[in-house]
Amino acid sequence: EVQLVESGGGLVQPGGSLRLSCAASGFTFSSSSMNWVRQAPGKGLEWVSHISSSSSTIYYADSVKGRFTISRDNAKNSLYLQMNSLRDEDTAVYYCAKSIAARKPFDYWGQGTLVTVSS
Amino acid sequence: DIQMTQSPSSLSASVGDRVTITCRASQSISSYLNWYQQKPGKAPKLLLYAASSLQSGVPSRFSGSGSGTDFTLTISSLQPEDFATYYCQQSYSIPYTFGQGTKLEIK
Tens place of pLDDT for every residue, chain B, 107 residues? Predict the structure, then answer.
């Protein structure tokens, strides 16, 4: 059974940093692309970042470029999102989602972790 | 960026009804169109990919069609568990944009 479990969310002040993690199991993590998608309270879905299976290809949404860094550790079956210079508008539930490759659908999602940016 | 526009934004329907949701892309995305279902407090779930391919385990009452810029999601006979919010998403180019969502409510 595919499982994606996010952690690391919480309350942080504007300008602060947070590192999210996503623990994967039930599939060959090292062969899958991974993504972060966020959802602000009461709002729709926003794609944040994509990383290929070997980390050779990485993409970001313009809204987080230069502030967020996606990475993965295939030996630990884990995905990460380092979030720096956080803003109020980064407040959201952050989901990790797997896809077979770029341009493919997100076939499994984690349950999400809430990040709240507030003073 | 490719803009995805869903209509309607909300919809009231009854169990047994046939429902259609449309999604329009601001430029051609071939068939790189996916549909997700999200229930309150839960993660999105993939329903259809490549415009018309049903994800494993998804009931056959869900179907999709379209290519280029215009797409539809159809539920042939609404069941109580289908009341949720539905999102389309293009995976043709970065950034992978979503529609604003269609909230399907019980009439």
Answer: 999 999 999 999 999 999 999 999 999 999 999 999 999 999 999 999 999 999 999 999 999 999 999 999 999 999 999 999 999 999 999 999 999 999 999 88
Q: How many other CB atoms sit within 10 Å of the CB of residue B59?
A: 13
Residue B63: beta bridge partners? B74
A34 Cα to chain B: minimum distance (Å): 13
Residues A90-111, mean pLDDT to the nearest whole number: 96
| A64 token code pair | 């987080």
Any idea of the CA torsion for B77, B79, B81, B83, to the nearest 10 degrees?
A: 60
Beta bridge partners of A68: A83
Residue written as token pair 């919809």: B11
User: Per the structure block, which two tokens stand in for B105?
Assistant: 């409510």
What six digits make up the tokens of A73? 């550790």
Cα within 13 Å of Cα(B52), Cβ side = 8
List, in sequence order, every residue forming a beta bridge with B104; answer none if it has no partner.
Answer: B11
Token representation of residue B17: 């009804």
Structure token pair of residue A110: 């984690």
Task: For residue A47, give the 3-state DSSP assignment.
Answer: strand
Q: What is the C-alpha to C-alpha distance for residues A14 and A36, in angstroms, rounded to an integer?
A: 21
Closest CA to A59 of B95, B34, B13, B23: B95
Is any Cβ of chain A less than 8 angstroms from the Cβ of B103?
no
Tell if the CB–CB gap between B46 and A107 is shorter than 8 Å: yes
Scanning every residue of chain A, which has its alpha carbon at the shortest distance from the alpha carbon of B42? A111
